Amino acid sequence: MAAFADFPDEAIPLIEVSDDKATLTVNEDAAALLARIDCVLCPIAIVGLYRTGKSSLLNFLNGKQAGFKVGPSVSRCTRGVWIYGRPKEVTLGDGSRCAVVLLDTEGVGGLEADASYDTRIFALATLLCAGLVYNSLGAIDENAIGQLSFVARLSEHVRFRPPPEKCEDAGLEAEEDAARLSAFMPRFTWVLRDFALELCDARGDAITADEYLEQSLRPAKGYEASVLERNRVRHALTAFFGARSCATWCGPSTTRLCSSRSTR
User: What are phi and psi of 244, to 5 degrees?
Assistant: First the structure.
């Protein structure tokens, strides 16, 4: 019998949300499934704006026509955090087994939630996974950078247990938490859907998707409030995610993602 053959071949909720969105609880059935996995666990989570095809991308990566819920309405299809019940077993370079578990998260920026709730879901998904996929449409421009503003607020929603001699300076404590948090961050991959541009630099020389990402994360010039805010997001991305990469997906007919080496 194949490994995990008796695990449910469907998506199930992992983190459930109360009607008022104030309380997040772990689904005990999902927790029990994860507890049965007897090898290294590698959770891969996908995040991004709502209605941009996150669940469809996960189904594609999972080799399924269906699985995670998708739909054509303006409402969010996913609520909280879901996992695919049946992990995929892979063999690592040292010959050991690894169980890859896919996590789908509620989309950011919907009409029925606020920025604080979105950041909580993002923070939770980030801490749960070993690989974080950010899904967006089109190229990386100033608008795309601005839509990642919740990354800059990540440290506001994560706190470490205070040391015996607690620091009385709340601002300093928050800065220390942000610095410590970067050591626990997963690998970050920005997937650009419906990407139709030619990857080249200002001189017309070909560049990789990773080099395109690094160019886009360089601070923009200017002192307007909007520029300073987007530069704050850039700084947060590079500070939190030391291991990052980019992949482009040219359109719905594309059958594979084209990515390049990761950046550390």
Answer: -145, 155
State CA 234 to chain mean position distance.
16
Please, which residues have CB within 8 angstroms of residue 187's CB and are 6 or more apart in sequence?
130, 131, 132, 241, 243, 244, 245, 262
Structure tokens at 87: 């992990």
**CATH superfamily for domain 138-158+170-264:** P-loop containing nucleotide triphosphate hydrolases (3.40.50.300)
Task: Note the pTM of the prediction, 2 decimals.
Answer: 0.84
3-class state of residue 106 by DSSP = coil
Architecture per CATH, domain 1-131, reads as 3-Layer(aba) Sandwich (3.40)
Q: Which of 30-44, 116-130, 144-158 has the lowest mean pLDDT?
A: 144-158
> What are the helix (H) ranges across the chain?
28-36, 54-61, 115-128, 142-146, 149-152, 170-181, 209-216, 225-240
Domain assignments of the chain as residue spans, ordered by start: 1-131, 138-158+170-264
Please indicate whether the domains covering 1-131 and 138-158+170-264 agree at the CATH topology level: yes
**Per-residue pLDDT reduced to its tens digit, 68-89:** 765 544 445 578 899 999 999 9
Q: Tens digits of per-residue pLDDT, 239-257?
A: 999 999 999 987 554 445 5
